[in-house]
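ok new one. same drill as before - structure tokens go in, u give me an amino acid for every spot. 126 of them this time. try not to just spam alanines like last time pls lmao
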């Protein structure tokens, strides 16, 4: 099922980013398999990233993101702050990264904005 707006699809295809659109009931999720994590920061090198797209996207922002497999900080062997809760999506227990978005610019932002937020959160994770 294809639900991604054409601007987002074009962006991802031009950058050759692997993604999968997954509809689980009434919830639409975008999965980025084998997403590279910041080198040496976590206990693994890659994880799949899930971004749930709310009804009304892209006018309404995605809120959080999710990882599978779950990751821990390499230095402490602990979960990052606000990244220790489970979220069930498509029969998978995802690691919820609670990072809320209050700066979404309706009509300007898209999946590229959310991916930058994911990359920043992973880089800054403590």
């Amino acid at each position: 099922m294809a639900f991604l707006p054409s601007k987002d699809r074009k962006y991802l295809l031009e950058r050759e980013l692997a993604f999968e659109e997954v509809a689980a009931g009434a919830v639409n999720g975008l999965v980025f398999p084998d997403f590279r994590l910041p080198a040496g920061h976590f206990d693994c090198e890659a994880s799949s990233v899930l971004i749930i797209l709310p009804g009304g996207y892209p006018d309404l922002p995605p809120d959080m993101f999710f990882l599978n497999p779950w990751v821990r900080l390499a230095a402490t062997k602990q979960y990052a702050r606000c990244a220790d809760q489970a979220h069930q999506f498509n029969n998978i227990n995802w690691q919820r990264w609670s990072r809320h978005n209050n700066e979404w610019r309706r009509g300007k932002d898209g999946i590229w904005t959310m991916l930058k937020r994911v990359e920043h959160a992973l880089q800054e994770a403590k």
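The helical segments are 6-14, 111-124. and btw The chain has one domain: 6-124.
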